[in-house]
Write a structure and sequence with these properties.
By secondary structure, this protein is mainly beta. About 5% of the residues lie in helices and about 40% in strands. The chain has a 5-stranded mixed β-barrel.
Amino acid sequence: MLNINRIMVTGRITRNPETRSLASGTMVANFGIAVNRNYQSGSGEWKEETIFLDIEAWGRLAERAMDTSRFYKGRPVYVEGRLKIDEWERDGVKRQTVRINADNISVFDVPKAGARDDAPVGGEAENPFARNTTPYSGRQQADTPLPTPGVSPSAKPSDGLDWGKSAGSNPPSTENDIPF
């Protein structure tokens, strides 16, 4: 049987990371994030649902989380890790909570409306961890082609064939170019 315990979420930090050092010298950081979900109800009304998650980071990740210039309340963050259940007893009542034990944490900025794609986001152009993440909405205008990463829109094929012939003419044959 295959067992998988993996979670990937993006959200906003809800409380600044609290870090502590264990007697062994290992650092531990705890913070929370809020993950939003927008959905349309059966009546067609748009609603928003928010889930609050506790995050636990150990070692070098915890040390990185101590950087308050990058990890602070309200900052968007990506967290990848595994689910972990903590159980304890208080006043004779058993309690438990589920938290994410982080393996990877990345902070990022969300571009402001109207910002240029090539402009530095949040003044962090020199930060190797900062990412310009523009979400893809899944909707594209019918007459607008999708951009090819790393290729300028004016680039032409470099195979030497003339693909710009009119619709009535036959394009050159490429049957012998296929390697199988």
